[in-house]
Write a structure and sequence with these properties.
Layout: E1 8-12, H1 15-33, E2 41-45, H2 59-62, H3 64-74, H4 76-83, H5 103-106
Parallel strand pairs: 1-2
């Protein structure tokens, strides 16, 4: 059973995007299967899109230290690295992040 909080979702604006999403998720499933892992992604039609306020745009460039604290503290990178270990990153939109060993290391960013 897949928990709702663990479902990946892609939103396609039109049929060509939907086809690309289908192809990519198929390749991703095949890649995970090689390592006895699974991944599930829902492909849904796009409805409304709300652009974030300007201070949210490029947050990682505008606030590198705060972004570093966030990325270090949330545990996301450790989870991504664990899940994607030995998986070909070309099927992911997640950009590998240089994980600092401590919050203090964020001060130099």
């Amino acid at each position: 059973m897949i928990k709702a909080s663990n479902i990946n979702q892609l939103y396609a604006h039109h049929e060509p995007q939907n086809q690309v999403a289908e192809e990519v998720t198929k390749k991703l499933k095949e890649e995970f299967k090689k390592h006895n892992q699974s991944v599930y992604t829902q492909i849904l039609p796009s409805t409304h899109f709300y652009k974030a306020e300007s201070y949210h745009q490029d947050y990682h460039h505008k606030n590198p230290k705060r972004y570093c604290y966030y990325r270090t503290g949330c545990g996301r990178d450790l989870t991504v690295n664990k899940v994607w270990q030995n998986i070909d990153w070309k099927y992911s939109n997640v950009v590998p992040f240089d994980i600092p060993s401590s919050y203090a290391e964020c001060l130099t960013r």
